[in-house]
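I am going through a labmate's work and have reached the protein record below. What it holds is a sequence and that sequence's fold in token form. Please read both lines and tell me whether the tokens look consistent with the sequence. Do not assume that whoever made the record got everything right. Thanks in advance; the entry in question is below.
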Amino acid sequence: MSSPENMPVESLSTQTRGAIEAAFKRPMVELLQHKGQSGLLDAVFAIHERLALADHSVQIQAQHLRKFLDPERRVGDSDVSHILDCAQRMAQAHSARTAHAAALTALLGVRQRPGQYTTPASRAPAQARTAPPTR
């Protein structure tokens, strides 16, 4: 039986890949053929690529920490700075991963509900035109 830390975990980038395919109603392989033709799709690809890199970095740093903190291994004085550096890098990668996932989720939400969102700047001129003249 596997211990929980050795069980494979689906990465966040893999999960969001499914969300991208659902939002565009096409497999990622097919969507990639249209790279460079749509600003929205290109933005989704760019964010997803950065999310995948951050995901990979979290996994690599976790492996390094497991190696350093193995119960069979003695932690020496020289290891302490490496452990702290690794933990810091993992925290940074996790923060980046979280931010990219949030951006991608927001972008896909807009994709699924086009036309519902307007910016305050785009509403202001319309409000100004409908206001009655004052004298």
Remarks:
- The chain is about 70% helix and 0% strand.
- The radius of gyration is 22 Å.
